[in-house]
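Known limitations

Files may contain more than one protein. Parsers should not assume a single record per file. Below, a two-record file is shown to illustrate correct handling: read the sequence, read the token line, then continue until end of file.
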Amino acid sequence: MSQVLYITAHPLNEMVSNSMAVGKAFIESYEEAHPDDEVVHIDLFKDEVPEIDADVFSGWGKLQSGESLSEVEQHKVSRLAELVDQFVAADKYVVVTPMWNLSFPPAVKRYFDAVSIAGKSFKYTSEGPQGLLTDKTALHIQSRGGFYSEGPAADMEMGDRYIRTIFTFMGVPNYRLIAVEGHNKVPEKAEEIKLNAIQQAESFAKEF
């Protein structure tokens, strides 16, 4: 049995959001094809993901020196430990985001900061950082109103580029993108674009 982390980062549901619609279609198809696997949903607009702030740095420092943590420090440090342990234990990742201002909602960066922890998802070596998640698989489902896969806007796309890079940094060898793109550029084809992405997601879910 495999565990899949289904990580969504959109304040709206699948009735409004293209990325969420494609993500829902993927997960439903995946669960049908892999009934013994466990899917855990992380909603980055609802679930608690602490920022790495002064309390966290203070708490980490106190842990190393054996000092007692304040209640706030203990809560944040413990929650971050839960998140990274959950992330490392998973076998597969499905990340669903819209493109916001060429990137993604801020909650996505906060989450990847929480799970990119030395000694957990990567380690430092004499030759530089080395990823530890070498037996995992990741999928990014991203909606973007324009066309960014190729052409003059391709270099401006920073969302999938970051997510792909951070997964590579953590050692994940298998990464795939399903892009739902162009629906604002050619609104007359918006429904067709979404349906094509849903079909692609449902098909890929069977082999993911």
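...continuing to the second record:
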Amino acid sequence: MSLSLNDRVKMALCPDRVILMRFSHGLHPHLLAKCIVPCPEVEAASGWPAAVAVLREALKAPEWQKAATTLVISNHFVRYLLIPWNDQLSSDEEWLAMVRHCFRQVYGDAAERWECRWSGGGFGMPLIASAIDPELLLALHQVAQETGVKLDSVQPYLMAAFNHWRRRMVSDNGCFLLTEPGRIGLACFHDGQWGGLVFEPLPPSDTAAVLPELLQRMLLRLEMGEAPHDIFAFAAEVPESAWRQTDGPTIRLLPLEPLPGLPPEAGAEYAMALMGE
């Protein structure tokens, strides 16, 4: 395998596995290498340290060396909040204080330490904020330094996936639905601004049976005045039969594009890493 410093490595960190993919540089990147390394089941229950340990060992292999790298973090390891706009805030420092205050109100004093980021639709519009344990970020950068990997970007899964699909979600009143094993999220938008955000556990078995009721419960939790017209769903590991259409919003699936070197049936397993940019 011929490796170049201009190659791109895309990774994902999940509670039960680590995903790695290497792509060639250019307008039409080719998949050069891929692997999924499971976390030991007993250790995975302890949270992100087990996944970071697996990542550290995986990155010692030569096929992941000497390339720009993007890492997507599972929503299991991230907390999200919708932050209202405040005309009194102008600097990043003031917004950071506001975001941390909102997280503290929901999660308590532990949120004071979290690494917070936020993004929004523009002036006067609500923002979506994410929070990650700073020890996780420190551990990831230490792993990169130890293994000689250039870690360019660390991205929460919700934001990475939304940015990947945003041009396909044409609606004045819709939702972006995102699933991964064990977790489902719903982020709603209307008139160009965020309108609600909710996450729920996703049962690992019999997803098709529980998904319709689960989705209705999530829509009710959003407490929106008007039901969304469209739900854009990126749920690579959920069978299409689970999305049987019922009364209510139209569900529009966001399918992964075929990728040379990656069999269609394997796309769901690598979906999270593919969202990294």
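Parsers that stop after the first record will miss the second one. For reference, the second record is described as follows. Residues 92-107 form the longest helix (16 residues).
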